[in-house]
Each structure stands twice: as C-alpha cells, then as structure tokens.
Specification:
The protein is an alpha+beta fold. Helix content is 20%, strand content 29%. The protein has two helices and four strands.
C-alpha cells in the first residue's frame, strides 16, 4: 500500500498498533524537520511552549 501511495505522490507512514513506525515513503520524508521526525522508530512531534 505504501508503494501505491508513493506512485500517487502522497506522503505515507505505516505505524503498527504499538506506535512503531514500520515504513515511510519518500514523500513523507520530505515533511520531516526539527518539529516532526522519527526517533527510535517512533513518530515524534515537538511541542510548543506558548505563554
């Protein structure tokens, strides 16, 4: 399935029921930066501190 989404130029991340990242296509990798990344096979989103 992730290959099909890649052919359609759609970002895709496959995560199992435990939250482990199993696969990521190239279009999804382009979205990652300091605020969104994969660390230790887990999807990581940085928090924001607003006061």
């Amino acid at each position: 399935m992730i290959g099909t989404l890649g052919l359609l130029k759609r970002p895709a991340i496959v995560v199992d029921r435990h939250g482990i990242v199993l696969d990521v296509n190239d279009d999804a990798l382009k979205l990652f930066d300091d605020d969104l990344s994969i660390k230790g096979k887990r999807l990581f989103a940085a928090g924001t501190n607003r006061e």
